[in-house]
Amino acid sequence: AVSFSVLNSVGKEEVARQNHIFELIMTEEKFVSDLQMIIEVCITPLQQLALPAAREINALFQPWVEMCSSNIVFLKSLKERQHSYAGQAIPEIGDILHGISQLTGYMEFCPTQKKLQDTWSDLYTADTQFHNFVQECCLNKRLCNLPPMYYMVKPMQRITKYPLLVSSILKKTLASCPDHSQLEEAVKISTELSHKVNESVREESYRATLENLDDQVDGWKELCSLNSVTHSHGARKLLYEGCLTKITTSRRLQVFLFNDCLLLTKPVGKSRIEQKFEVYRQPTLLSEIILKEEVPEDILLEEKDKFDKSHTFSIHLLDKEKTLYVTAASREKRDMWLKKITEAQKKFVKVFQDLLLQSERAVSDVSQSCVALVRITVIDAKDLRSPLGISKADPYVIVTIGQQKRMTKVAIDTLNPHWDEELAQFPVTDLATTEIKFAVANCSRFSPDESLGFGKIKTRDLIQTNSSPWKQSLVLTGVESGKLRVLVDINLLSMD
């Protein structure tokens, strides 16, 4: 620590700065001590006990050892800097704090912390040997009469505290001080790491929630798993859920709002401990929903004694040509449903708007210097084979030239689709190097599209043959069978 004589010789701001540095080092020392203590008291003895039932717990503990090793290195750097000034004020610490970026194990441990605690609790109840082991652990004085699981939250607490500790030092550091810019960078580094860990914890929470829902909801798995990747919006996430009541029938519905769709279910059975649901309506994509804040007066008049008008709203499902008139438990709940669905719809649509904008920019980038316009007509495909072995598919074709993309309409329920669809023209800048790429895919509403094969044409091979247009039959690659017929027309532009 900095000596009193030194502290008395500097200003109040520097005293506060040195106190914040001291706090960071001392709390880091205590944190590392706790990490090491758990390894010595719990992790290593449990591994030596070699309980078959504890294999999963041992695996979940592995990142803890990695965390401890990386934090020991970080603490060593802090202590060396402190000792190098031997009771004097530490002028610079920011460069050492950049070492926060080298801390490892948190991204792996923090998301599984709850699973570790649940597994530990279940095993404590079910396995006598493990129960006895935990009892012995709790008698160890180093745990300070606290259960081992008490310490499991410490890594998450520590990783979120780093930005606060570093910011406290930065606030007391003069802008003219050489350490100021180093500390600014350290704040960015610690904040980014904290954000990444928090995000991974959220992702794991989403995954665990959807895994449970997969078991609770009957009738969804025929489409895909809830705990899976969406068509275009990354991992599926549960954004909101709750009970809504149909006004016309008084049926209670449990409604789940995801980042790609809305799922209506109805409760099955009377168990409150393990409530089960079955699909009431097949899920609807968020782009196929129209919300209205009111319910028609004639609907309300029929049920005027049952429902409060301020609790009601309408959900029109475009894909089913059906309108549901529903009521929430309160006005606040109703407003929350409207807000959550509207926000989710905006994010859902933005993904497709961004893709369209990206394609338009690609066209704009080459239009100024293009030497030709390529027009492509997708005629048909024969003998498509689904890798999943299904007898029918909903195929479509994506045509790509450089960063430009166009796609056909979706053919419904066939492995021998006929499109005869002319796509918008592609401007190209160099016919000698341009490739036209074709991807045939099975359209899926709630999961990524399944590939049905690929093909490509080099424009230089076409222009060396007879005059345009060229009809081509492509044997699709990446699949067992399938042919795609297309018509390519190249219109050379005048260079005047």
Describe the fold and architecture.
The chain has helices at residues 4-8, 12-49, 55-84, 94-97, 106-109, 113-126, 128-138, 154-171, 179-216, 297-302, 331-367, 459-463; strands at residues 217-218, 238-246, 252-258, 261-268, 276-285, 289-292, 312-317, 322-327, 372-382, 395-401, 404-407, 418-422, 426-428, 435-442, 450-458, 470-475, 483-492. It has 496 residues and is α+β, with helices and mostly antiparallel strands. β7 and β8 (322-327) form a beta hairpin. It is globular. It starts with a helix and ends with a strand. 26% of the residues are buried. The model has no long low-confidence stretch (mean pLDDT 88).
Please outline the helices and strands.
Layout: H1 4-8, H2 12-49, H3 55-84, H4 94-97, H5 106-109, H6 113-126, H7 128-138, H8 154-171, H9 179-216, E1 217-218, E2 238-246, E3 252-258, E4 261-268, E5 276-285, E6 289-292, H10 297-302, E7 312-317, E8 322-327, H11 331-367, E9 372-382, E10 395-401, E11 404-407, E12 418-422, E13 426-428, E14 435-442, E15 450-458, H12 459-463, E16 470-475, E17 483-492
Parallel strand pairs: 1-5
Antiparallel strand pairs: 2-3, 2-8, 3-4, 4-5, 6-7, 7-8, 9-12, 9-13, 9-17, 10-11, 10-14, 14-15, 16-17
Helix pairs in contact: 2-3, 2-8, 3-6, 6-7, 8-9
